[in-house]
Specification:
mainly alpha
């Protein structure tokens, strides 16, 4: 496999994984859902897909306790 081919396959594979996580949010952790939303919000195929990912990210973030969200935002999760 050439590096050009690998560079084209890698993002497509990540998008496919992110879509699979979003399609079955009940079975995945909020952390994994958040990662999938970030991937789709940045690299989704359409504006609608990117917008939907951003909206779901807001919903997931709203479920977190305020103090945990503040620690995450400051890069001090788990301290």
């Amino acid at each position: 496999m050439t590096s050009r081919h690998q560079s084209a396959v890698w993002p497509a594979a990540r998008l496919k994984e992110a879509r699979a996580v979003i399609a079955d949010v009940a079975r995945h952790s909020d952390h994994l859902i958040r990662l999938a939303c970030n991937v789709l919000a940045a690299h989704g195929a359409t504006e609608a897909e990117r917008k939907d990912a951003r909206v779901l990210l807001v919903v997931i973030d709203a479920r977190r306790p305020v103090r945990a969200a503040q620690r995450d935002d400051q890069g001090r999760a788990g301290l």
